[in-house]
Amino acid sequence: MRYTSRIAVIQARAARIDAAISRQAVGTLPAVSGVMDPISRRRFLATLAAVNSSASLVDAQFAASGDALSREARDRMTPARVIDELKRGNERFCDGAGEAYDYRRQQRMTASGQYPAAVILGCIDSRAPAEIIFDCGIGDLFNARIAGNVVNDDLLGSLEFSCVTAGAKAIVVFGHTACGAIKGAIDNVKSGHLTTLLAHITPAVAETTFVGKRSSTNTTFVDAVARTNVRRSVDAIRRGSVQLADLEKRGEIQIAGAMYDVATGVVEFIDVSGIRLQQHIIPRHRHA
Ligand SMILES: [Zn+2]
Questions:
Q1: 224 CA from centroid of ligand 1 (Å)
Q2: How far lies 60's CA from each of 144, 254, 258, in Å?
Q3: Model pTM?
């Protein structure tokens, strides 16, 4: 089917969905933000299960096959294994040895259900696309992107959806070098809605212990602040979400921090265990 024909089919389907929605009482829809009550959540999960039961997904290893990730393959993995697979994916990316994914095949396989293994909280930076850098396919990752990979209530909701509702095993706060949002926070930029967003990063500037020029033109300082910012986001997730903190304490998910180097393509996982911001020692030298 040609693209234009597909669009016509999609538009016809959208019209039918719109008509159905207009007949449906709003009160019957499950909550999409905040914590669902147990009955709503069970109903929501039952709906998901009904939708997914028609899927005939091939059992596949995460990021090690051209197939889409199945529920069984995802659920067999420990959180640590998920992080290992992400590291292996980044190695393949750096080696220029990425999987030859058949995206159209994965798109068809995931149409009736998705079982992502991890959720990435990354920056909007065009040089930091998580799926490519971790050599993942369609359906492998939830991908939450916001300038400066900061955390707010809506993002906590997205992370809770990913892990609590949909079963992802790992959260990776995914900062990167040469980040424009970090530079903006260092420069105390005031501009429209950006002002509010950068306010989430500003404390990381002061909290970064650094010997040298504390300026947005000093790339070493910019990257040091970005590392502090990753740790702050991990901290914000642990403090801000009782649900996610509990899952992590029970070992059902892992919350990780990582820095992506736009110059080398390497993702470095940084230690965020037992995080206490005041005790962090920020490296004085460029880590790349
Ligand atoms: Zn950035």
A1: 13
A2: 24, 22, 26
A3: 0.78
